[in-house]
C-alpha cells in the first residue's frame, strides 16, 4: 500500500508510521484500503458515488463499538445467513470519532434556543473555568455541609414543597379552589367523621392507607351487577346501595391526596409554630366548605413556606452563577440570612435551631467577604475573556466569508448559551434554520464543529465532503479557519473525504500551501474497481496546469485519436473559439467537412482559407495533421472499437465512445448519451488539474456502461 511520506516539498516532516486501515463488507464496498497519518490532515479525493461516505460511517460506527457496524451490512447479504460481517481493521487506536456531515448539521447545530447543542460545555466550561468555580464553591463548603447533615430537616423541606405544590394560589393571592389540596380538604372531614351508612367501613377508611382500599373497592364495584352475592367475599344478598355509596363519598384520587397531605404535615409539623399547626390540622377535618378567613390563613401559610423554600434554594445553590450578576456581593450574601420573626408560621424551636445554624455559617462566609469578592471577580474576568475570544474568532470568520450574521454568548440561568443574530435585526434569531441558506448553515456549522473538536479531542475527525458546495472565497475562508485559525484543528488526526479537487490544490500545490504546512497535509486519490477502493498519493508534482496535462499527454500518446482528444480539451479550457477549435470539433464529430454553429441548431461550412489556417495551427501540436484522411479513418467502427479497447483511461474511453455514437447509436434510451456528453465534455474548470491518465476520475459504472453499449453498436 502506498505510504504518504512521499508528499513532496512538505515543510513539516510527515509521520513514517501511518495507520493502515482496511474496511470490508460495508454497504457497496467489498473492501477499502486507506492510510491515515496521525496528527495530520488526510485528504482523500475521489469521484461521487465511490463510497467515501461509507468509509466515514464505517470508521464512526466501529468506534461506537458493539454491533453498530452491522448497520452497514450490504443489501446482498441481508435476509440471509452465513455471510461475512462488516469489519474495520487497523483502527484499534481510534476509540472516539467526531464526524461532520449532514446529520451533524441537522441534529446538533442551530437549536431553537442556542446555536450549538450544549454550547456552554464547548465554549465556556474549560478547565480554567471549572477550577475557578471550585474555588468559589469551596468558600461555601461549610454552609452546604449543614444541609447535608440535617437529614430530618431535608425530609421536612420535601414535605414543605409538597404543601406548596398542592395548594396553588391565583394571581390575586387567593387560594385556588381547583388545586389538589383544596379538593382533598373536602374529604378530610368525611374520613374523620364517617357517614352513618358507611361506618362499617371505618377500619378501612381510617387506616394509614385508605386510598388503596378505596381504589380496590371501586374496582370490585363494577362486578355488583353480575350477582346478588358480594363481589369481595361472596356473602349472599349484599347491600349494593351501600357498596356503591363508598365511591360516591370517597373518590380515590382525592383520598390519596388527603393521605399525602396528612403525611406531609406529620413530617414537617414540628417546624410550624404550634398555633399554626393546630389551625392547619383542624382544616383537614372540616365537614363544610372552608370559610374565607380559613382560606386566607392557608394562603398566608403557603406564602411564608414558599418564601422560606426559595431562600433555602438560594443558599443551597450558592455558586458563581448566583453571584456573577451581583454588583455588591457582600450585601447580597447578608440579605440571604433567614429572619424567622417575619415568617411567623415557621417560628418554632425546631426551625429556629436549623436557621440559627445556617445564619452562623453565612456569618463565617461574611468574615472572609474580601476573598469571596476576589474569587468572584477573577471568575468574571475568565468568563469575559472566554466570551470575547470565542465571539471575536467566530464573528471574524463570518465576516471574512461574507456572511451578515454574528454570534453572542449570553448567560442563561446557571449556564451560558451562544445565540445567532443578523446585523440588520436587533435580538437573536430563535430559529436560525429558517433564516440561513443551506450554504450558510454548512459553513457556520463547520466552524462550530471545529470548536467542539477542540473541546472533546477525539481520536479521529472525519469531514465528509465539507466544502464542495461553496464558492472559492468561502472554501478558502473555511479551510483557513479549520486548519490555520487560532482554534484550528490542525493538530488533530483529520480525514477529509471530498469529490472536490480544489482543497487539495489550495493545500498541497499552490502558493497558499505554506499557510497549511502546520496541518501536515497528505493527499490521496481514491479509485474503485469491482467494489474495492484503493488510494494513490497525490504529490505536489501531480497537480499541474491544464496546459501541462494536455501537452504531456499529446506528446506521450501513440494514438493520434488520443492526441486530438487532449488537444481539443486544451482548446476548450483555453476558450479558443477560432477556426482551429471548430475544425477539431468537426473532426471528433466525424463531419465530412469542417463547419461551425451559427445559432438555432444551424451550421455553416468553414471557408477554405480558414480551414487551411486551422490545419496549420493544429499541425504545430500534431505534425502531419490531415482532416480528410482522419475523418475517413475514424468512421471505421471496428477501428474505433479497437481504440476503445486499447486504452485503460476512463476519460479517453468516454471520448472515443462519443465518437462512435456519431456513426451509430445502440438504439436505447439516450439518457446515458446525454449524461456522458454533458458531464465529461470538459472535466473541470480548475487551472490546476490531475492527469486523467494517472488519476482516472471517471466512475467505474460510467466506463462499464460505455463498454456495454459499445457491444451494441454495429456498422450502419
From TrEMBL:
What highest taxon heads this organism's lineage?
A: Bacteria
Q: Which residues form the Protein CR006 P-loop domain?
A: 356-485
**What are the UniProt keywords, alphabetically?**
DNA damage, DNA repair, SOS response
Q: Note the InterPro entries from the entry.
A: CR006_AAA, P-loop_NTPase
Cross-referenced Gene3D superfamilies:
P-loop containing nucleotide triphosphate hydrolases
Q: Does the keyword RNA-binding apply?
A: no
- Name of the protein in its database record: AAA family ATPase
Amino acid at each position: 500500500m502506498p505510504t504518504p511520506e512521499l508528499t513532496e516539498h512538505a515543510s513539516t516532516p510527515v509521520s513514517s508510521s501511518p495507520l493502515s486501515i482496511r474496511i470490508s463488507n460495508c454497504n457497496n464496498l467489498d473492501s477499502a484500503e486507506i492510510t491515515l497519518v496521525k496528527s495530520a490532515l488526510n485528504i482523500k479525493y475521489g469521484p461521487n458515488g465511490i463510497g467515501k461516505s461509507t468509509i466515514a460511517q464505517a470508521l464512526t460506527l466501529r468506534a461506537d463499538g458493539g454491533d453498530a457496524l452491522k448497520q452497514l451490512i450490504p443489501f446482498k447479504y441481508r435476509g440471509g445467513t452465513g455471510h461475512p460481517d462488516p469489519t474495520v481493521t487497523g483502527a484499534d487506536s481510534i476509540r472516539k470519532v467526531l464526524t461532520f456531515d449532514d446529520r451533524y448539521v441537522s441534529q446538533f447545530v442551530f437549536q431553537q434556543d442556542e446555536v450549538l447543542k450544549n454550547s456552554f460545555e464547548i465554549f465556556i466550561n474549560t478547565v480554567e473555568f471549572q477550577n475557578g468555580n471550585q474555588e468559589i464553591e469551596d468558600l461555601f463548603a461549610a454552609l452546604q455541609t449543614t444541609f447535608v447533615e440535617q437529614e430530618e430537616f431535608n425530609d421536612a423541606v420535601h414535605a414543605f414543597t409538597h404543601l406548596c405544590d398542592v395548594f396553588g394560589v391565583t394571581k390575586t393571592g387567593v387560594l385556588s379552589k381547583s388545586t389538589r389540596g383544596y379538593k382533598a380538604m373536602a374529604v378530610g372531614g368525611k374520613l374523620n367523621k364517617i357517614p352513618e351508612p358507611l361506618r362499617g367501613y371505618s377500619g378501612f377508611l381510617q387506616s394509614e392507607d385508605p386510598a388503596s382500599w378505596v381504589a380496590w373497592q371501586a374496582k370490585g364495584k363494577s362486578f355488583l351487577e353480575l350477582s346478588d352475592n358480594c363481589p369481595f367475599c361472596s356473602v349472599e344478598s349484599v347491600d349494593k346501595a351501600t357498596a356503591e355509596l363508598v365511591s360516591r363519598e370517597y373518590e380515590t384520587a382525592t383520598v390519596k391526596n388527603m393521605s399525602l397531605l396528612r403525611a406531609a404535615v406529620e413530617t414537617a409539623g414540628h417546624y410550624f409554630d404550634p398555633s399554626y399547626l393546630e389551625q392547619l390540622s383542624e382544616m383537614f377535618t372540616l365537614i363544610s366548605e372552608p370559610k374565607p378567613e380559613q382560606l386566607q390563613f392557608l394562603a398566608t401559610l403557603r406564602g411564608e413556606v414558599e418564601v422560606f423554600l426559595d431562600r433555602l434554594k438560594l443558599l443551597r445553590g450558592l455558586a458563581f452563577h448566583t453571584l456573577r450578576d451581583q454588583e455588591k456581593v457582600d450585601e447580597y450574601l447578608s440579605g440571604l440570612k433567614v429572619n424567622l420573626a417575619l415568617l411567623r408560621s415557621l417560628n418554632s424551636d425546631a426551625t429556629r435551631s436549623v436557621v440559627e445554624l445556617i445564619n452562623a455559617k453565612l456569618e463565617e462566609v461574611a468574615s472572609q467577604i474580601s476573598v469571596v469578592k476576589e474569587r468572584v471577580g477573577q471568575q468574571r474576568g475568565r468568563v469575559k475573556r472566554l466570551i470575547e475570544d470565542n465571539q471575536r474568532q467566530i464573528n471574524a470568520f463570518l465576516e471574512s466569508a461574507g456572511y451578515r450574521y454574528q454570534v453572542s454568548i449570553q448567560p442563561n440561568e446557571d449556564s451560558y448559551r451562544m445565540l445567532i443574530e443578523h446585523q440588520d435585526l436587533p435580538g437573536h434569531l430563535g430559529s436560525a434554520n429558517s433564516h440561513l441558506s443551506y450554504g450558510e448553515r454548512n459553513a457556520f456549522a463547520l466552524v462550530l464543529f471545529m470548536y467542539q473538536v477542540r473541546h472533546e479531542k477525539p481520536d479521529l475527525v472525519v469531514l465528509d465532503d465539507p466544502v464542495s458546495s461553496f464558492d472559492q472565497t468561502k472554501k478558502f475562508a473555511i479551510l483557513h479557519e479549520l486548519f490555520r485559525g487560532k482554534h484550528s484543528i490542525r493538530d488533530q488526526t483529520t480525514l477529509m473525504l471530498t469529490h472536490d479537487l480544489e482543497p487539495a490544490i489550495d493545500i498541497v500545490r499552490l502558493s497558499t500551501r505554506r499557510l497549511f504546512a502546520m496541518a501536515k497535509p497528505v493527499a490521496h486519490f481514491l479509485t474503485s474497481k469491482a467494489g474495492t477502493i484503493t488510494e494513490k498519493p497525490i504529490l505536489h508534482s501531480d497537480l499541474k496546469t491544464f496546459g501541462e496535462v494536455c501537452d504531456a499527454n499529446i506528446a506521450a500518446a501513440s494514438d493520434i485519436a488520443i492526441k486530438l482528444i487532449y488537444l481539443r480539451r486544451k482548446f476548450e479550457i483555453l476558450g479558443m473559439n477560432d477556426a482551429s477549435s471548430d475544425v477539431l470539433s468537426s473532426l471528433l464529430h466525424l463531419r465530412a467537412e469542417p463547419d461551425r454553429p451559427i445559432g438555432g441548431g444551424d451550421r455553416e461550412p468553414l471557408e477554405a482559407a480558414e480551414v487551411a489556417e486551422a490545419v496549420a495551427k493544429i499541425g504545430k501540436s500534431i505534425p502531419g495533421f490531415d482532416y480528410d484522411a482522419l475523418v475517413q479513418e475514424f468512421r471505421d467502427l471496428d477501428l474505433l472499437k479497437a481504440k476503445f479497447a486499447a486504452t485503460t483511461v476512463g476519460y479517453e474511453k468516454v471520448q472515443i465512445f462519443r465518437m462512435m455514437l456519431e456513426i451509430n447509436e445502440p438504439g436505447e434510451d439516450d439518457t446515458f448519451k446525454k449524461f456522458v456528453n454533458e458531464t465529461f465534455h470538459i472535466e473541470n474548470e480548475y487551472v490546476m488539474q490531475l492527469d486523467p491518465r494517472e488519476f482516472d476520475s471517471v466512475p467505474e459504472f460510467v466506463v462499464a456502461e460505455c463498454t456495454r453499449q459499445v457491444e451494441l453498436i454495429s456498422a450502419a
